[in-house]
Design goal:
The chain is an alpha/beta fold. It is built from seven helices and five strands, in the order βαβααβαβαβαα. Strands 2-1-3-4-5 form a five-stranded parallel sheet, sandwiched between helices. It is globular.
């Protein structure tokens, strides 16, 4: 079953390495026949949160928010690609997430984290799980953590170490299972509670 999967990248730093991780997972999703859409805050240039998308009158939201809302409503799940900043998530990712709410409901999320060091951004993943759950997109158990990102992936987003592809297969197998299950439930109009 083909899925629509926005890949939300968290970094806007000029020498960011996360773009390689985002490229990697987009290619892996496409190889499985899914529609993967990279959402890059560096390109979107969202303002710091003042009003959420839903707080604008119909047709009055900035075009970038309207485009994202349209994409997110089509989404079957989300993959978050995060660095670790001070044991938490990058501010660009938090800002990107906070502009929306209902668009995330009953869609699973999986976390891909990375770092220059050996821990692979896992502390950011722990912090991100709470945020994602509060937004209504349950965070799945498996985290794809990539340490030493500068060497583990090349500029095109291809793995330079074989363990990455093996870990990504497990990560995406789990994501597909949950995304397909929740897609079927949404199609049957059976939310767990009224909206």
């Amino acid at each position: 079953m083909k899925l629509v999967v926005p890949v939300l990248l968290g970094s806007v730093r000029t020498e960011r390495q996360g773009i390689k991780a985002a490229r990697y997972i987009v290619k892996a999703l496409e190889k499985r026949g899914h529609e993967a859409v990279l959402v890059d805050p560096m390109e979107k240039k969202l303002p710091l949160l003042d009003r959420m998308y839903k707080e604008y009158a119909p047709g009055q939201a900035p075009a970038v928010l309207q485009d994202l809302a349209t994409l997110y409503r089509r989404a079957d799940g989300f993959i978050l690609c995060t660095a670790e900043y001070n044991q938490s998530v990058p501010p660009a990712l938090k800002n990107l997430l906070d502009h929306f709410l209902e668009e995330y409901f009953w869609r699973p999320s999986s976390i891909m984290s990375y770092s220059q060091g050996r821990f692979g951004g896992v502390r950011a993943a722990v912090a991100l799980r709470t945020i994602l759950t509060e937004l209504g997109m349950p965070s799945l158990p498996t985290n794809l953590a990539i340490p030493s990102i500068g060497k583990a992936l090349d500029e095109a987003g291809d793995a330079t170490e074989p363990w990455i592809d093996k870990a990504a297969d497990r990560f995406l197998d789990e994501f597909e299972w949950y995304a397909q299950a929740l897609k079927a439930q949404r199609a049957a109009a059976r939310p767990p509670y009224g909206v």
